[in-house]
Amino acid sequence: MVMPAAARPILLPLVLLLCWVAPSGQEPAPVQLRLAGPRGPAGEGRLEVLYQGRWGTVCDDGFDFHAATVACRQLGYTAAVTWTHSATYGQGEGPIWMDNVRCGGSEGSLAECVHNGWGTSDCHHGEDAGVVCSGQRLPGSPPQATISGHLGEVPGLSLEEVRLKPILARAKLSMPVTEGAVEVKHNGRWRQVCDAGWTRNNSRVVCGMLGFPREKHINTSFYRKLWNMKLKDPNSSLKALSQKNSFWVHKVRCQGTEPHLARCPTQVAPPAPRQQACPHGMHAIVSCLPGPTFQKGTGKGRSKTSPGKVLPVRLRAGTHAGEGRVEVLRHGQWGTVCDKQWDLAAASVVCRQLGYGTAKQALVGAQMGQGLGPIHMSEVRCTGHEQSLGECRFQDAEQSGCRHEADAAVRCHVPHMDFQTQVRLAGGRSPEEGVVEVLVPVQGRLQWGAVCGAQWGLNEAMVVCRQLGLGFASHALQETWYWAGSPDAAQVVMSGVRCAGTELALQQCQRHGPVHCPSGGGRFSAGVTCTAHAPDLVMNARLVQETAYLEDRPLELLYCAHEERCLSRSADHMHWPYGHRRLLRFSSQIHNLGRADFRPKMGRHAWTWHQCHRHFHSIEVFTHYDLLTLNGSKVAEGHKASFCLEDTNCPEGLQRRFACANFGEQGVSVGCWDTYRHDIDCQWIDITDVPPGSYTFQVVVNPKHEVAESDFSNNVMRCRCKYDGQRVWMHGCHTSDAYGADVVNDLERQERLANNLV
């Protein structure tokens, strides 16, 4: 829970007085560390500190790999694999002992690192840091009793990072690098890996760590010739280096299911004291196959699994590529996965199936937001060799009592594409905002330049924020006169940009061939503001289906609705107040499934007052209501302004934070929902002029994309609608991404056949 604004002024002077306590000049306070959180493999969990007899947590502000390395060594492990933020392993309790921790990496204890001071923090437990340490413990270290679950001891020493060193010219020019010699980082130093005993299982693990779903067979004879040539070259230092054991990792033995090379049994040095490492071998060569998203061609990835077991999967609400809530398509409908026994093996199957590498993290507790609809799977058990999640063993979630609070999510290894160096933001007040500047070829050389602001929108801004690793776009700006761009990027080098919103880089979007920007850039250059988290609005389709009915409403009760243009145009020509309008009424319940509150774009000072209804409109058009023929032609329409955007209800454990009473703040909190009842004005479509027949009823939430969301693909809800002139039937209601394409096509085909339209 974010600290109330009223509490902050009390804390700030204390932070200023105790700013940056550096214990290097005095004996650091004795502390103990432990890992806590959900049951998982040994060596990973929420980092907790025992200080003055009380266990507390560490804030993720400023926490980095160096701090994780110090913590893991203090816990008795050889190295850190990674660190986590935002309470990945659940929220802790008690004090937050450390904030803004800064370590060099060589400290013997976390207490020796620079931090704000014990207990001095402006964080909440939603920002608790965690660590993932290597499975191998340092010799003589005591057992870590506070961690549940156990990973078998791995002989040898741990490997921290892996990379491929391209050797052939074509490999050096490709991005991502998919082929080369394997190099691993051990104790801060890069080493080559001997190819003696190297297997495809080893290659599979390396490729997975580098973001690739599969390894490729490679003929190493040409590499052997190059190796031998360099050994004979008197100007090459390879011969001298290769005779040193510190140059090599002697042997790695993976089963192929490990998510990280650090979990494979490893021998860094030969078993005999004076034995030479890799006496007749060379460096191991690996070739990886990138997923479809990262291939230059348009070829689709092929699955070798039997059609009956392939369950399509997708990720939702993730901040970066390769992360999100796991959803599977089963029985024609998308649903979530329960986090019971969710682990890295199952998460890695999902990642590889989607064309990424192995999983960095298997997230539990709906850390990527809660889904809406069915929960399809629970207690998923995978060996790691499966090509589809459907091949793993699992239970139906109905039998396990799971709820969406336990939706599983993943973070996958993705290939390094170097996209981040091809775009930058300039002139903003923070690194998360500014004028968009791109690096593109101009007359045969790479040049930085601005992007024309004409037609710039949220989809384009989303791509920029994702490309920079900054999450989602909160604003897309067509004018940036208040931000000064870089002097070397004043020229407009890109215009007419059109993105679907799913591209990995702005350079992948459609754009003008020759640049055409009549406004000339400058103050009309494109800009963005990025945010780590975003809301995600989804309509409850079932409630619409259950509450739809017809009402013949007298004109004398519709003056205000007519003023707000909630009736069809034919109402303008009626003899008011005599007569009535036929209205298709329904209730709508809009859930925020994202990871940030949904707030109106404008502040209260800019809301529009409507005298007739006597309320403010915080968003002038919040929803569109349409009645369409089966060919897609519109026969009737309606709209709804957000005159009261509030938390009508929240699930157990969450407090309502937005309420419209007394000109209160408007919005929908994370996990909560806003309900517009069927009996309020404009919650309808005027169908007075519509003849009987079969139609498609459609609702679009946030239709103009005025407020940024993490996912716009689920903002449309459709129903099949039958109207006989006196009664209406609504059925088959679903959000646009709730069903698979085959099911939607079948529904539409059946409806067309029934009405002799095909």
Protein model, in words:
Strands 15, 16, 17, 18, 19, 20 and 21 form a seven-stranded mixed β-sheet that branches. A hairpin with a 4-residue loop joins β39 (716-723) and β40. The two termini are 55 Å apart. The chain is an alpha+beta fold. It has eleven helices and 40 strands. Helix content is 13%, strand content 28%. Pfam families: Lysyl_oxidase, SRCR.
Features of the shown structure:
758 residues, alpha+beta, seven-stranded mixed β-sheet, six-stranded mixed β-sheet, 11 helices, elongated, disordered C terminus
Helix content: 10-25%
Radius of gyration: 29 Å
Q: What's the total number of strands?
A: 40
Which class do the helix and strand fractions yield?
alpha+beta
Percent strand: 25-35%
The low-pLDDT segments are: 1-27, 142-157, 298-308, 750-758
Main beta sheet, described? 7 strands, mixed
Rounded mean pLDDT is 82
Q: Helix segment count?
A: 11
